[in-house]
Design goal:
The protein has 202 residues and is α+β, with helices and mostly antiparallel strands. Helices cover 21% and strands 29% of the residues. Strands 1, 5, 6, 7, 8, 9 and 10 form a seven-stranded mixed sheet that branches. A three-stranded mixed sheet has the order 3-2-4, with no helix packed on it. α2 crosses α3. The chain starts with a helix and ends in a 12-residue tail after the last helix. The model has no long low-confidence stretch (mean pLDDT 93).
Length: 202
C-alpha cells in the first residue's frame, strides 16, 4: 500500500483501491490511547500509522485501502473524509440501510429505533493518512463480522455508542453484493473505475 501510494505521488502508477478481508486483529491509529486496548492479548495489535484510534478488523468485514491522488481532485482533507462518508452512505443505501454522519464523530452511523433505548451504532469506520496529497489506509464496512470481537477495545475511542453490521440489521445478501454496491457508490462519488488483478503476494 505504501509503495503504491509513493508510486502514485511520483506519477509512476495510477490510483488504486484494494478491497480485502483481514484475519482478526486490532489496529491502532496515531491517536490510540493505551487504556482503550482492553484485551491486549486477544488478537494481534498493529500500529498502523493512519489517523484515528483503535479499531477491529476481521472476517466478515470489508476493508478498502483507498489510494487516491488528491492533487487531481481537491487538496482538502475534510472534503476527502466527507467524500468517503458519502461513499459509505451510498453503499449501504443500496443494501437497504440508512446511514448518517455526526459532526463530532468520524464514520457512518445507524439510528437504531428498533431497540430500546434508541441509540446510534457505528456500521463503518474511516482511518486515512495523506502523504504528498496521496491517500492510503481507508475504510471498513461491517458486513457480518463477529461483533463481540469489538469488545476488546474502545472502538475509535467512543464508548457511549454501539457497533452494528449489515447482517445484524437484517441484510441477507453476500459479500459480493456488498462489493457491487461499493463499486457503484464509489463511481458516483469519485468517478469511473476499472478492475485490476490483485497484487502478487509471493
Amino acid at each position: 500500500m505504501e509503495r503504491r501510494a509513493e508510486a502514485i505521488a511520483e506519477g509512476r502508477l495510477g490510483e488504486l483501491v484494494w478491497l480485502l478481508e483481514h484475519p482478526p486483529l486490532y489496529s491502532a491509529g496515531v491517536s490510540a490511547k493505551v487504556a482503550d486496548l482492553l484485551h491486549p492479548d486477544r488478537f494481534p495489535v498493529f500500529a498502523s500509522g493512519r489517523g484515528g484510534q483503535y479499531t477491529y478488523h476481521g472476517p466478515g468485514q470489508r476493508v478498502a485501502y483507498v489510494m487516491l491522488d488528491l492533487r487531481e481532485r481537491s487538496r482538502d482533507t475534510r472534503a476527502f473524509v466527507n467524500a468517503l462518508e458519502s461513499w459509505l452512505i451510498g453503499t449501504i443505501a443500496q443494501l437497504g440501510v440508512t446511514g448518517v454522519t455526526r459532526q463530532s464523530r468520524v464514520g457512518v452511523w445507524v439510528e437504531r429505533d428498533d431497540i430500546h433505548p434508541v441509540r446510534e451504532e457505528k456500521i463503518a469506520a474511516i482511518g486515512v493518512k495523506l502523504r504528498r496529497w496521496v491517500s492510503f489506509h481507508g475504510i471498513s464496512l461491517n458486513f457480518a463480522p463477529d461483533l463481540e470481537h469489538f469488545s476488546g477495545i474502545v472502538p475509535c475511542g467512543v464508548s457511549e455508542h454501539g457497533i452494528t453490521s449489515l447482517a445484524a440489521l437484517g441484510f441477507t445478501g453476500s459479500m459480493e453484493d456488498v462489493d457491487g454496491a461499493l463499486l457503484s457508490a464509489f463511481r458516483s462519488v469519485f468517478g469511473e473505475t476499472h478492475r485490476e488483478s490483485p497484487p502478487d503476494q509471493a
